[in-house]
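RECORD TYPE: inverse folding
INPUT: structure tokens
STRUCTURE:
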């Protein structure tokens, strides 16, 4: 009977919590760290009053309350003096509060509503950073798991967001950091493919490993995974008995990455991994408010690239393209990567002239 009474008590508590009126939710309740406010039915203060309170809450780090202030401002004064700036601050507060998808939605709303606003580049930037952060998730903050070894759907969206920012606003103060983030994501995507190739090698599925590495070689030619991709192809084809093809990839290694071959000409497959040499995410810019002075990755002791070099790097990065499909999709569709040999980048792909058909599980 006591157990039944406890269950009944818990049920009553649950009903009481879920029965909260108005727009109050469990997320907004003080019990769960929210602001415990019911959405106002009419304006309780002036437009400037809402904005001043929101600004004060942002400075104090009370982002939930700032979001409520800015939302009310936008609701009751949709075409007011502060409406555009309020939306810019709203996306910032949502990002800081961890509401990344809400920040993306607010950014897109700003881009669509105010395309000629001088700060529209900030909205493009916040959209990309928010999608990038959404891919990482809160769990990764407390683990050593490599983000590239998870699903990277939001990272691909972020890549396209940053590319659109650079194409539309190449002189934006946010463009240099957007270019760095594009390179970071580009390498993440290549690493994701190579992580799968390593998995295949451990299971002696050498043909599948070679195809994954070839995908990286063809479609991520500017990535830091290229040395490992070539080494993986050389090693895999050697194991498959396709000596002529393996030797041609080994020749590429001897010319470009001789350290990946030992004295006997064998591939040092265990020493090819380059993921640890990536650009560290901590070196990327920190998102600030749109009203702050923009100074991303710069300081009084700045010793990095000159302005012409930065512009050139931005232009090169903007030219990067992601493949329209993944190696897994292509494998599932039973497509032959050999048919794409005309898509050659940087180092040329040797022809696979071996007449023997390898027997290997894929």
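DESIGNED SEQUENCE:
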């Amino acid at each position: 009977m006591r157990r039944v009474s406890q269950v009944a008590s818990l049920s009553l508590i649950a009903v009481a919590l879920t029965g909260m009126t108005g727009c109050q939710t469990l997320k907004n309740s003080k019990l769960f760290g929210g602001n415990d406010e019911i959405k106002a039915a009419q304006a309780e203060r002036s437009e400037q009053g809402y904005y001043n309170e929101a600004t004060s809450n942002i400075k104090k780090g009370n982002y939930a309350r700032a979001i409520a202030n800015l939302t009310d401002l936008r609701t009751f004064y949709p075409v007011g003096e502060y409406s555009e700036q309020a939306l810019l601050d709203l996306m910032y507060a949502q990002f800081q509060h961890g509401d990344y998808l809400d920040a993306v939605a607010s950014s897109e709303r700003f881009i669509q509503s105010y395309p000629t606003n001088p700060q529209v580049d900030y909205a493009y930037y916040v959209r990309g950073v928010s999608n990038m952060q959404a891919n990482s998730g809160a769990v990764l903050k407390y683990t050593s798991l490599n983000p590239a070894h998870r699903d990277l759907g939001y990272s691909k969206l972020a890549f396209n967001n940053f590319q659109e920012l650079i194409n539309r606003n190449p002189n934006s103060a946010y463009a240099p950091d957007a270019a760095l983030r594009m390179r970071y994501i580009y390498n993440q995507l290549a690493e994701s493919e190579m992580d799968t190739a390593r998995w295949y090698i451990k299971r002696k599925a050498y043909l599948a490993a070679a195809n994954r590495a070839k995908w990286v070689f063809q479609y991520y030619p500017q990535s830091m995974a290229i040395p490992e991709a070539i080494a993986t192809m050389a090693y895999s084809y050697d194991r498959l008995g396709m000596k002529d093809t393996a030797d041609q990839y080994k020749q590429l290694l001897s010319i470009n990455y001789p350290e990946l071959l030992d004295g006997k000409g064998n591939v040092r497959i265990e020493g090819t991994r380059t993921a640890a040499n990536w650009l560290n995410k901590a070196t990327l810019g920190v998102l600030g408010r749109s009203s702050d002075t923009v100074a991303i990755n710069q300081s009084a002791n700045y010793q990095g690239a000159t302005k012409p070099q930065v512009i050139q790097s931005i232009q090169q990065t903007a030219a990067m393209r992601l493949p329209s499909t993944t190696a897994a999709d292509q494998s599932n569709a039973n497509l032959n990567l050999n048919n794409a040999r005309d898509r050659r980048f940087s180092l040329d792909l040797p022809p696979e002239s071996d007449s023997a058909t390898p027997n290997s599980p894929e």
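NOTES: The chain has two domains: 25-118, 123-362.
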